């Protein structure tokens, strides 16, 4: 893995004050998987992505930060976030869901 990019789509529920997101993750310039629309705030998208990367065998679960692991691998990491309408966030989360057992 030479590059990792997470494109996160956030939506804020003004009625109850909760934040939600969905993400599309690309590895080496190719869409690898998407994270479904779910509750989360701040950098929850990165934590959920890390879990999938561990399941897929890209990272280990050593407790070392995923950014440090990527740095050791020489992998460039990029993150983009944008606030969108709920329907857009939901649509992005359905793009390419990760399936357990899907490994690199």
Description:
The protein has three helices and four strands, in the order βββααβα. The chain has one domain (3-93). Residues 100-104 have low confidence and may be disordered. The protein is globular. The chain is of the alpha+beta class and 104 residues long. The longest helix has 12 residues, at 44-55. The protein has a four-stranded mixed sheet with strand order 3-2-1-4, sandwiched between helices.
Unreliable stretches (pLDDT < 50, length at least 5) are: 100-104
Choose one word for the global shape: globular
Percentage of residues assigned to helices: 25-40%
Structural class: alpha+beta
Radius of gyration: 14 Å
How many H/I helical runs? 3
What is the domain total for the residues?
1
The strand line-up of the biggest sheet is 3-2-1-4
Oligomer: single chain
Layout of helices and strands, plus pairs?
Layout: E1 3-12, E2 19-27, E3 30-39, H1 44-55, H2 66-73, E4 76-83, H3 86-93
Condensed summary:
The protein has three helices and four strands; from the N terminus they run E-E-E-H-H-E-H. It is an alpha+beta fold and 104 residues long. The chain has one domain (3-93).
Which descriptors apply to this entry?
3 helices, alpha+beta, 4-stranded mixed β-sheet, 104 residues, disordered C terminus
């Amino acid at each position: 893995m030479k590059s990792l990019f997470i494109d996160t789509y956030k939506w804020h529920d003004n009625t109850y004050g909760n934040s939600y997101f969905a993400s599309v993750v690309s590895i080496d310039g190719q869409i690898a998987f998407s994270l479904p629309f779910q509750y989360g705030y701040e950098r929850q998208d990165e934590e959920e992505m890390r879990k999938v990367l561990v399941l897929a065998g890209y990272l280990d679960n050593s407790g070392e930060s995923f950014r440090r692991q990527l740095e050791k691998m020489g992998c460039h990491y990029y993150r983009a976030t944008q606030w969108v309408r709920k329907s857009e966030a939901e649509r992005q989360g359905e793009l390419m869901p990760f399936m357990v057992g899907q490994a690199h």
